[in-house]
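Worked problem 6 (solution included).
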Amino acid sequence: MTATRVLVLNSGSSSVKYQLLDMRDSSRLANGLVERIGEQSSRLKHTPLATGGGSREWTGPIADHDAALKAVAEELAKDGLGLDSPELAAIGHRVVHGGKHFTEPTVIDDAVLAEIERLIPVAPLHNPANLTGIRTATALRPDLPQVAVFDTAFHTTMPEAAARYAIDVETADAHRVRRYGFHGTSHAYVSRATAKLLGKAPEEVNVIVLHLGNGASASAVEKGRCVDTSMGLTPLEGLVMGTRSGDTDPAVIFHLARVGEMSIDEIDTLLNKKSGLIGLCGDNDMREIRRRVDEGDERAKLAFDIYIHRLKKYIGAYYAVLGQVDAVAFTAGVGENAAPVREAAVAGLGSLGLAVDDELNAVRGDEPRLISPAGARVAVAVVPTDEELEIATQTYALVKKTN
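Solution. The predicted structure is:
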């Protein structure tokens, strides 16, 4: 029997998201979420898609990631999809930061673990949780290939002119300071899906991808390769996000430390957790912000306008970087669902060939679709992202190649 199933794990600091896929047809067999790990009110929601049964949910104490993954294994086993199944080919792990070293999916060994651990200083919130998930899964199935798929890998094709900051080279190299970029699995998937929507190969098109969720990033993809992206050393740089500031004058930090007498940790918390939309208007849910805008709330309107202004700047910048643009693709929670954001982002950019059709833009759906007028010089698309499928696809391809 050929093993064709891949379990995808996305381990956060207090959560584990998972999907089990059959790579013969990319079908989903099960998915779920464990959250609030380490609390008395931990919650597990499991959906057995293969059997067509309803979701199962329970709450109770889950002490750590080891207990969480064992609980996931038990739920899968109830549906005949247990981790001991001979049909399971590999476990694919989302790893947020792979630095310069990891440019593609990688079978995990001790050396890979050590490098992921060395990158913790530039990904202190994510890499430790990713490591915990890897180690726990390895303990449960030590015989099975464990594969790391890195958020940063897609962006390692950026030229040095885009990846380097204009600071002293020796200092930058000594402390690994450069633009790495994130959301790479999403940008990779969406750029390819956009090319397919246009009836072309990825190597034939230039795409600006706008991944707009609570975290948000843009990328310039030239003939299938990323040549620039908005997030940098960390996910803080770039677009205005739900709670992150995005681009800010670095001297703001010095000013807040000297004049505001804030500590480094306080400034870190301010820029990562108390800025962006929530800092501007007290909400980081775009639906609520739009409701407030429609009711005449000036603070919400200013937050929305700042969000759109930054987004337009990046569209224009990446248009210049690419020289020729075939499509602009919106994805992720806001990008896929907020028609007013898409409309506002391209408003006034007709000279660049960008426009949306009001009726097409208002349509909601789960499939990739064009929302630009017929015959538009540049296609504007809504492309639902599928990071789990991307991780599973890369994991399975690597395992087949390795075997």
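Discussion: The mean pLDDT is 93.
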